[in-house]
């Protein structure tokens, strides 16, 4: 077997090359012959002379000249041309031109370094250089002798890719293909091309310049020209959302929920570092932080919706479909999830080397209303979700919340009893009686809030979700992080081994999150302040604690807090 893999620069042809070499045990002809033939006709002469060895693969950016097409046909060389979304391809070339690494296969891209998107240098590069690169791909499509492969399929549809390759190159075992694909992804970051969610960051004028040079053949490969009207942009975005739904609708949803300052951020980071989880934090869809209105309130309000529904033509014709608001709300929630992930795009794109199998979302609760509305709404919108409820000793929750307020007050240069009290404790001094009374009232207020929020969410969670509800304690995560993370991943169905567990625990450790401090080393100005359990003892005596948290005592004992 002899294979020629070609495609324009930044198309991803070397990703496919590494995969094919491993799958079919092919020699690296690039390395074997040293200096590559400089153009397509020179390659044709190289092939005619017998230089293209059997059981080998050659990869480079060769156009479909008549001589190369004919030589490949005569010698039985299988040609594969890798195509890629032209907008993302240009974005990749521009981004790489503005890094220290550069784009060595596109020496002309040096003119892009330091050039603004809407500059004359960019317009000139697109019309002179990039247009010719696009024609390379289009030329192979027109020639009709190459197997055209979309680079995006490497990430989004590997099964489709194998169905395309197998009849031409021969079938391989599924496990072998999966292993080779995984190894390829460990070496080659796909960036935004491997992510169906990414939106182009290109300005409208650049898109217009690209639209003028993209050959019609790209539409036959499944790449649509970017729209140039607001309506077109919306339609394109909704088509992307439809593909998102088709690809990800059945993925497992995980909601990480807990009282504010109970460790929801830490929990979020543990899932963030699992390679198969896409995570978002606090979209404020269901919860009511500081008594504000949650985004889905008006749509989910029974009275408001029923009034509209009964008077609508749809409601009169199909009154039995009154629950449609939950379907609409889920669609809105999923669309906003899609937008949140689509906009998470750096200069290198949304990089993901592994497939998404789970979506994880963090929700912090601050009021009783948050707790009740969140769990009830989640059950209506995502009945098959996994709910992880993290709880923490309410005394430490109160201390953490106090330092959160302290940090905010200090940043605003405001002074009050919280700043005075914390400063006095940090200085090793005792506050006066007035300050102690204020602290006592503060802790009582937090005890009451914690008791109501934790009890409501726990009781409703167990009732509504049953085995799909898991309670985890912050203190257990501290004491046995690897065992608890294994418990979390087992519960949510995330694949893992001992090595992955250790890596996740290390990446989400207090030392890494706090940029070097060990747990217990306090930085009052940091969001990750101390990372320990039992810190409340530095601020309340046992007697003061019993009085302040009397109302929460029963639930504390239920959760194992003495």
Distance between the termini: 71 Å
Biggest β-sheet, characterized? 5 strands, parallel
- What is the radius of gyration? 29 Å
Total strands: the figure is 10
The percent range for helix content is: 40-55%
Low-confidence stretches: 190-194, 523-528
The tally of helices reads 27
**Category by helix and strand content:** alpha/beta
Q: Which percent range describes the beta-strand content? A: 5-15%
The largest sheet has its strands arranged as: 2-3-1-4-5
Determine the mean pLDDT.
Answer: 85
Name the overall outline.
elongated
What does this structure look like?
With 562 residues, the protein is of the alpha/beta class. 54% of the residues lie in helices and 9% in strands. It has 27 helices and 10 strands. The chain has helices spanning 13-23, 29-33, 40-48, 66-75, 86-97, 120-143, 153-156, 158-169, 174-187, 204-213, 217-220, 230-248, 264-272, 297-300, 302-311, 313-317, 324-342, 368-381, 394-411, 417-426, 433-465, 474-479, 481-492, 498-507, 510-513, 542-548, 553-558, and strands spanning 2-6, 27-28, 56-59, 78-83, 147-150, 252-259, 277-281, 358-365, 386-391, 469-473. A 5-stranded parallel beta sheet has the order 2-3-1-4-5, with helices on both faces. Helix 23 crosses helix 24 (498-507). The radius of gyration is 29 Å and the shape is elongated. The protein starts with a strand and ends with a helix.
Short structural summary:
The protein is an alpha/beta fold and 562 residues long. It contains 27 helices and ten strands. About 2% of the residues have low confidence.
């Amino acid at each position: 077997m002899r294979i020629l893999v070609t495609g324009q620069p930044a198309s991803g042809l070397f990703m496919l090359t590494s995969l094919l070499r491993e799958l079919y045990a092919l020699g690296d002809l690039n390395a074997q012959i040293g200096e590559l033939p400089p153009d397509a006709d020179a390659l044709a002469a190289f092939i005619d002379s017998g230089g293209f060895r059997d059981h080998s693969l050659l990869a480079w950016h060769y156009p479909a000249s008549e001589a190369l097409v004919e030589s490949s046909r005569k010698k039985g060389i299988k040609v594969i041309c890798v195509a890629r979304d032209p907008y993302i391809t240009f974005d990749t070339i521009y981004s790489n031109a503005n890094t220290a690494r550069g784009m060595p296969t596109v020496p002309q891209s040096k003119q892009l370094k330091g050039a603004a998107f809407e500059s004359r240098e960019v317009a000139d590069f697109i019309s002179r250089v990039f247009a010719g690169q696009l024609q390379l791909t289009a030329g192979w499509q027109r020639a009709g002798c190459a197997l055209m492969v979309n680079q995006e399929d490497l990430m989004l549809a590997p099964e489709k890719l194998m169905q395309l390759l197998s009849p031409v190159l021969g079938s391989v075992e599924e496990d072998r293909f999966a292993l080779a694909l995984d190894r390829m992804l460990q070496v080659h970051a796909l960036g935004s091309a491997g992510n169906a969610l990414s939106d182009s960051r290109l300005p409208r004028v650049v898109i217009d310049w690209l639209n003028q040079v993209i050959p019609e053949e790209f539409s036959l490969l499944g790449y649509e020209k970017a729209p140039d009207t607001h309506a077109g942009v919306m339609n394109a975005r909704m088509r992307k959302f439809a593909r998102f739904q088709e690809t990800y609708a059945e993925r497992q949803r995980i909601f990480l929920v807990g009282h504010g300052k109970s460790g929801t951020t830490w929990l979020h980071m543990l899932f963030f570092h699992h390679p198969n989880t896409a995570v978002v934090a606090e979209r404020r869809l269901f919860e009511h932080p500081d008594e504000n209105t949650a985004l889905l309130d008006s749509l989910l309000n029974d009275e408001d919706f029923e009034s509209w529904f009964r008077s609508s033509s749809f409601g009169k014709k199909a009154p039995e479909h009154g629950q449609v608001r939950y379907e609409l709300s889920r669609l809105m929630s999923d669309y906003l999830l899609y937008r949140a992930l689509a906009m998470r795009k750096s200069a290198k794109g949304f990089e993901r080397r592994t497939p998404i199998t789970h979506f994880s979302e963090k929700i912090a609760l601050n009021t009783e209303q948050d707790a009740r509305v969140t769990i009830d709404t989640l059950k209506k919108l995502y009945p098959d979700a996994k709910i992880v409820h993290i709880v923490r000793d309410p005394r430490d929750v109160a201390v953490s919340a106090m330092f959160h307020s302290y940090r905010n007050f200090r940043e605003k240069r405001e002074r009050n009893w919280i700043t005075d009290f914390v400063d006095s404790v940090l200085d090793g001094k005792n506050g006066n009686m007035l300050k102690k009374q204020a602290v006592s009232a503060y802790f009582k207020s937090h005890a009451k809030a914690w008791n109501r929020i934790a009890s409501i969410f726990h009781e409703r969670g167990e009732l509504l979700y049953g085995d799909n509800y898991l309670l985890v304690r912050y203190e257990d995560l501290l004491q046995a992080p690897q065992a608890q993370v294994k418990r979390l991943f087992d519960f949510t169905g995330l694949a893992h081994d001992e090595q992955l567990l250790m890596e996740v625990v290390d990446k989400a450790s207090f030392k890494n999150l706090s940029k070097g401090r060990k747990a217990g080393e306090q930085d009052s100005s940091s969001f990750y302040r101390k990372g320990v359990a039992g810190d409340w003892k530095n601020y309340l005596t046992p007697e003061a604690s019993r009085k302040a948290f009397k109302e929460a005592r029963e639930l504390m004992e239920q959760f194992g807090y003495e």
